[in-house]
């Protein structure tokens, strides 16, 4: 794989829930959208960085990668607001990508599956719940038989930013070990999830 010829922005922000807040509250919805979406598309950090980067990206025929989620594609119980925010991010990319392409800039989204990070554990709850959830996913829902790693995602981002992906534009790259193809929600875990959060 060829390496990117220049620096490129990777918009990577995400939370699943506001710690200690019920999933179905406006407070939780606002918290999630403020971080997952507004930091990508709102008049703040990411939009400002993108605006600053566009003149350079035009000169280098660069690209922008947004980190979304498999939750934008596969309905997942217990994370409604998170899923809605990532669906919005995917749609934002599909609207912006054609305009940026006219400037020679590619924009794509990476949609990871279940990855071994602290995004889920940050919302609180017993660690054994998250370990149980990960094991159940591996056993029942991820055909490749393991959760993803940060290195898996870094390689996918590097691909999207590389010259090997020079004809890839306005797409969502799913990197999930086959999770989107896996079985339905694991019985009992979605209810347990609501109780633990």
From TrEMBL:
<dbReference type="InterPro" id="IPR036291">
    <property type="entry name" value="NAD(P)-bd_dom_sf"/>
</dbReference>
<dbReference type="InterPro" id="IPR002347">
    <property type="entry name" value="SDR_fam"/>
</dbReference>
<protein>
    <submittedName>
        <fullName>NAD(P)-binding protein</fullName>
    </submittedName>
</protein>
<feature type="region of interest" description="Disordered">
    <location>
        <begin position="1"/>
        <end position="21"/>
    </location>
</feature>
<dbReference type="Pfam" id="PF13561">
    <property type="entry name" value="adh_short_C2"/>
</dbReference>
């Amino acid at each position: 794989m060829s390496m990117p010829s220049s620096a490129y922005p990777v918009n990577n922000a995400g939370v699943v829930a506001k710690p200690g807040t019920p999933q179905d509250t406006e407070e939780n919805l606002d918290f999630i959208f403020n971080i997952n979406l507004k930091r990508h598309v709102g008049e703040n950090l990411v939009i400002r960085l993108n605006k600053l980067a566009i003149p350079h990206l035009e000169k280098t025929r660069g690209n922008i990668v947004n980190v979304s989620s498999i939750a934008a594609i596969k309905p997942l119980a217990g994370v409604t607001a998170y899923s809605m925010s990532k669906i919005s991010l995917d749609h934002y990319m599909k609207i912006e990508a054609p305009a940026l392409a006219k400037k020679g800039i590619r924009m794509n989204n990476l949609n990871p599956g279940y990855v071994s990070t602290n995004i889920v554990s940050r919302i609180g709850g017993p660690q054994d719940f998250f370990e149980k959830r990960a094991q159940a996913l591996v056993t029942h829902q991820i055909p490749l038989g393991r959760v993803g790693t940060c290195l898996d995602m870094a390689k996918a981002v590097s691909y999207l930013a590389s010259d090997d992906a020079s004809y890839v534009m306005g797409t969502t790259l799913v990197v999930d070990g086959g999770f989107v193809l896996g079985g339905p929600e694991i019985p009992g875990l979605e209810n347990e999830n609501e109780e633990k959060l």
